[in-house]
Specification:
4 domains; 16 strands; four-stranded antiparallel beta sheet; single chain; five-stranded antiparallel beta sheet; elongated; 13 helices; Alpha-Beta Plaits; alpha+beta
Length: about 450
């Protein structure tokens, strides 16, 4: 609601109140006149007439006082403050309705570097307080030449991000960085670290996701051993790039070009990797038994490196056309593909097996830098039974849980089965075709991912 609309509502409210007060005043005058006529010649007429005059004067004074102060802010409020009348809700001057105790505010994450000297932090907090900014949380990252202070701020909604940054710089900060935050950032850092450590302990595939959620917008990459950069002697930190030894072999690279990592963040990343190393390879044992329309039962479970032989056998049973749709061409070295796909460092894999234990389908959710790819392979004899849709729906749910904004599938433009399956998710889709290769991107949101299948 805009301020103009609020003013109109308040003016209409005053108009109704003024009419009632005017009516009360007229009733008082009429009553006084009636009393004067009845007792005009009585022994107490002077007293009654004086009382009537006092009543009229009091009513008139009340109306004048109410009109004079109805548009003034209460004592101590700054000029221009919107004050709600009884029975009305206050509204922010920004576009869109805002309700609750935080109406008219916005959350920001801000990081600035200050001198390691007494009073440096106080100068920044004082500058923020002067602009009615509330500091919700504060983290300090000591450096050799100063201290990085990271704030979670609640600021007036109409206060620009640039003004916050300029306030910090004017108070002695440097290299100030700021971005919008949300309710998830209200969780304190120890609680967030414990949550991420628990998820990592339960599932080896969670380590890349935990690092991404710990550092916000960043790119996570894994380089297998034997490749350039796949083997490092020790963990390293270089401004905006971390390189960590992968317990599963190879190197994990964490890159955040827009903001250098601090030694404190480097230590947190190493702690998560060390936890993963101590616990070894682990895959959740959760299994779902489903019944297909024709009555056959299948089991959907997580797959890992131990399923390499079963996955190889699945590939051998698939037709060349099915493999071409999945890999966009001939598969020269299936073991190399499968070692990558089944590794928890590169994503999560779902397997479908029959009552006899044969694996008849694989579905992969692959972490591709800051993007996420989905891929399906269903044995020819088990296609067109709804298995691909069920697997794709589960992959989308996993991507939403990992806070991915979108997923994409790469296939041939002639793969009508994959196109139809993606469309049945009911998500917004984008199609890009180049040289016969089709890339379908689905935009995700929690509400859309839980929408009923069509």
């Amino acid at each position: 609601m805009t301020s103009a609309t609020t003013n109109c509502r308040r003016h209409r409210h005053h108009w109704r109140r003024d009419v009632l007060e005017l009516a009360a005043l007229l009733v008082a005058v009429a009553t006084a006149e009636l009393i004067a006529d009845l007792v005009g010649h009585g022994p107490h007429s002077p007293v009654l007439l004086c009382s009537s005059a006092a009543l009229i004067a009091t009513a008139g004074f009340h109306t004048w006082w109410a009109r004079r102060h109805s548009h003034s802010p209460p004592s101590g409020a700054p000029a221009g403050t919107e004050v709600a009348e009884p029975g009305e809700s206050s509204a922010a001057t920004t576009s869109g309705p805002v309700t609750g105790p935080d109406a008219g505010t916005a959350l920001w994450r801000m990081r600035t570097t200050v001198r390691d000297a007494p009073g440096s932090l106080a100068a920044v907090t004082t500058a923020l307080a002067a602009r009615n900014v509330d500091i919700l949380t504060l983290q300090t990252h000591p450096l050799t030449n100063g201290t990085v202070d990271e704030f979670l701020l609640r600021a007036p909604a109409d206060l620009p991000a640039g003004e916050l940054a300029r306030a910090a710089d004017a108070a002695g900060g440097r290299d100030t960085w700021i971005e919008r935050a949300d309710a998830h950032d209200l969780v304190d850092t120890p609680t967030r670290m414990l949550t991420l450590a628990t998820r990592t302990a339960m599932d080896a595939a969670e380590l890349p996701l935990a690092l991404r959620q710990l550092f916000g917008r960043c790119t996570i990459g894994s380089t297998p051993p034997g490749r350039p950069g796949g083997e490092i002697a020790e963990d390293t930190l270089e401004e905006t790039v971390m390189r960590l030894r992968d317990p599963a072999g190879g190197t994990i690279t964490v890159e955040r070009p827009y903001l250098p990592f601090t030694p404190t963040e480097f230590a947190r990343a190493r702690a998560l990797v060390e936890l993963d190393d101590r616990l070894g390879v682990r895959v959740p044992e959760h299994r779902d038994v489903l019944t297909l329309p024709e009555g056959n039962e299948i089991t959907v479970r997580r797959a890992g490196p131990e399923d390499l032989a079963a996955a190889r056998a699945l590939h051998e049973r698939c037709s060349p056309a099915t493999l071409a749709h999945r890999y966009h061409g001939p598969v020269a070295d299936v073991d190399r593909y499968l070692n990558h796909l089944l590794s928890p460092r590169f994503g999560q894999t779902l397997a479908v097996q029959t009552v006899s234990g044969r694996v008849v389908a694989l579905a992969h959710l692959l972490w591709d830098g800051d993007e996420t790819e989905v891929a399906l392979l269903v044995e020819d004899a088990w296609q067109r039974r709804g298995i691909g849709l069920e697997l794709l729906r589960r992959l989308v749910a996993q991507a939403v849980e990992a806070e991915c904004e979108s997923v994409y599938a790469v296939t041939r433009a002639t793969n009508t089965g994959m196109i139809a399956t993606m469309r049945r998710l009911g998500l917004p889709l984008d199609y890009q075709v180049e040289n016969g290769t089709l890339v379908i991107t689905a935009t995700l949101s929690p509400a859309e991912a839980n929408a009923p299948l069509r």
